[in-house]
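[agent] plan:
  1. take the single chain provided in the ticket
  2. run structure prediction with default settings
  3. attach structure tokens to the ticket
  4. add a short note for the reviewer (M.T.)
[agent] executing step 1
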Amino acid sequence: MSTNNLQSCKRKMFLHGHGRQSTSIDDLGIDILVYEILIRLPAKGVGRSKCVCKEWLSLLSTRHFAMMHCRHISTSYNQKFIAIGSRLCSVCPLSCEDQGPLLNSKILLPFEAPWNKVNILTSFEGLLCVCFRNIGKLVIWNPLTHAFKEVSSSNSHGLYKPKSDAIGLYVDKLDDYKLLHIKRRRGRMWVHVYSSMFDSWHKITFANKLRC
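[agent] step 2 finished; step 3 output follows
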């Protein structure tokens, strides 16, 4: 049997459960597992696959896989938008290819806040930065897992003003997801960064004072 046919059989055994022996990651081949199967799963499927075994949990939790999966989703027809309503959010596909009615799912807002005071400021790799407009608090929210983290602190770090501030999410070389907060007050500018790894804020110091 040729190498291609052998790999094809292994994929079928994996997908359909044929064969008496279970197919391990080593038997299947890491390239096939990642580039042909797991990379094509929707985000919810990836989350469920992490529960299969420790090997899969380790593989699917790497920064490398997250970047590849995000790039695949961004170039496919799996992109979605989220619309916030009274206690419920509608998650709908962006694709216009389907002429039928758009299928959407409903999720609950996991935090206590008036729905009409919740603003989505930015997104990055499935994470959303949300602002409670009435009090200025910032929250990082993962709609897939329903997990969220309030990042505003009592010493005014992370208190957002819609008409003067700017927000951005990014990840650094240590795989630390960070929130960039640019604050403008009375003609002056300050920049603070929140680290999800250390659950803390720090101020960016510039050689010259910034004015706006």
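[agent] step 4 note for reviewer: The CA atoms of residues 140 and 149 lie 5 Å apart.
[agent] ticket updated
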